[in-house]
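Quarterly update from the structural biology core.
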Amino acid sequence: MELQELNARIESESAFIGEIERELGKVIIGQRGMVERLLIALLSNGHILLEGVPGLAKTLAIKSLASTIRAQFSRIQFTPDLLPADLVGTMIYNQRREEFSVRRGPIFANFILADEINRAPAKVQSALLEAMQERQVTIGDSSFTLDEPFLVLATQNPIEQEGTYPLPEAQVDRFMLKVLIDYPNREDEQLIIRQKISGADTSINPVVEPGAILRAREVLRNVYVDEKIERYIVDIVFATRKPAEYKLADLEQLIAFGGSPRASINLALAARAHAFVKRRGYVVPEDVRAICMDVMRHRVGVTYEAEAENISSEDVMTKILNTVEVP
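Predicted structure, tokenized:
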């Protein structure tokens, strides 16, 4: 496909992005980065994890995004006593028919808001893994394919807070993006107060059909990723595994484990979606750098030595991004 033709198609198929942003703007003030990353996850068919202290509109943003799309939405509040059956469903015995029938759980929806996901124990997390990775659910001896689009949008509180469990590495890796939400600035907080005490109508209208998202994903596959960009992505991920080869020998004692091939794949997919959101038919290094931290921060483990020196995976990734040669 010619670049000019591709740009025209992107302009046409990405029109719904502006409509979603307008609707979200009714209730979400500031937090532009969070909204953009929610759209990137939606376009890339990747799950997203939002982390921040309570009260930063994480749940509101996800719920509002789902409300803009004419699709099925389930909100699951994760608690320490939640059971796998509460999530995926269970087999119910029908005495009249003398047979078991399947009662489907809330996971059978297009958008799943997993609220405070790290408050539920490992058994519940493992029940969610199959749905996230295979896009299917097994109940008894039957497997059920989940409808597209299917997206898990999760929120979690910082791990230091009371009553939270650290998510298993395997599950964290299934999230395409992990986005850290910070406090709003002074001007935005003043606008938030004004909006909340005014009593103005902030209801969200559904403006997008699921078909529009699936069509956009088809166009997204045609966004051009040059070989130099591919090598740049590989260099970033390999620098987390073998830092000495990239003149980063001082990081060897700080990195416990680097990014897997899933990190490289998701970085390419997210960079392509970032280009699409910017209405561009090709990926540039800035797309990779813009989304890199959200793709990599939960995929790079730091050692006890790093933790003792108060060095986080973000500090490691910042150093790698500043050192790896940009094409």
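The chain has two domains: 3-82+110-215, 224-323.
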